[in-house]
Amino acid sequence: MTRSQRSRRLTDPVLQVSIAAAWMALAATTAQAQGNAPPLRKYVGSPDYPALLKEPAVKAKLQAVVGKQLPALMRNIDVTGDMGLVSGAITISGNASHKGGEEEGVICVAEYDGTVQAAILSKGRITVFAKDAKYDGLMICIKDWITQVNSGHRDRFAQPKNVQFSKPN
């Protein structure tokens, strides 16, 4: 390949876009590896939800959105597992001791800005706590929790009729 041909290849728009995309991906990977992940992400996979709820970015927002119902919410997540990550929100879900299916709760915290939404199942009714009272504005983790609670968690234990497994070729 001549110098002229190499020069023309480097000015090819498709090649330039490909090189730019590769550099951007490398920069993003490097930034994340250097600790530029959202500061709250460190809690994902941890059982220490009280530490997350004490974070300044979270504590005030949780109190503001839940208000006087905070003790009930905390009682309803007394038994919980490790925190998860659902569509950019750290999720704490659980139930009151010996009250699974009756008294349950969820807290979702946006990993980037600490926005908080929560919900309680108590006496058969789900109460949602969010800054905006619009269902379509709820975080996916709240909606997913509502779906599970409304199904009685059946699909976690019994295979739904419309679920099938593929067979190896």
What can you see in these coordinates?
- There is one protein chain.
- Strands 1, 2, 3, 4, 5 and 6 form a 6-stranded antiparallel beta sheet that branches.
- The chain is 40% helix and 19% strand.
- The protein has helices at 3-10, 13-33, 49-54, 56-66, 70-76, 140-150, 154-157, and strands spanning 79-80, 84-86, 89-95, 103-110, 116-122, 125-129.
- The protein is an alpha+beta fold.
- The chain starts with a helix and ends in a 12-residue tail after the last helix.
- Residues 27-31 have low confidence and may be disordered.
- A hairpin with a 5-residue loop joins strand 4 (103-110) and strand 5.
- It has 2 domains: 6-33; 39-155, Inhibitor of vertebrate lysozyme, Ivy.
- The longest helix is centred in the first third of the chain and has 21 residues, at 13-33.
Architecture blueprint of SSEs:
Blueprint: H1 3-10, H2 13-33, H3 49-54, H4 56-66, H5 70-76, E1 79-80, E2 84-86, E3 89-95, E4 103-110, E5 116-122, E6 125-129, H6 140-150, H7 154-157
Antiparallel strand pairs: 1-3, 2-3, 3-4, 4-5, 5-6
What are the main properties of this structure?
alpha+beta, about 40% helix, 2 domains, Inhibitor of vertebrate lysozyme, Ivy, six-stranded antiparallel β-sheet, about 170 residues
Whole-number mean pLDDT: 85
Instruction: Could you tell me the CATH topology label of the largest domain.
Output: Inhibitor of vertebrate lysozyme, Ivy
Helix content: 40-55%
| Structural class based on helices, strands and sheet pairing | alpha+beta
> What's the CATH C level of the largest domain?
Alpha Beta
Number of domains: 2
Strand content bin: 15-25%
First-residue to last-residue Cα separation: 45 Å
- Could you list the spans in which at least 5 consecutive residues all have pLDDT below 50? 27-31
Oligomer: single chain
Annotation field: number of helices: 7
Outline, from the CA principal axes? globular
The total of beta strands comes to 6
Known CATH architecture of the largest domain: 3-Layer(aba) Sandwich
Which sheet architecture does the biggest sheet show?
6 strands, antiparallel
Work out the radius of gyration. 23 Å
* Secondary-structure element string: HHHHHEEEEEEHH
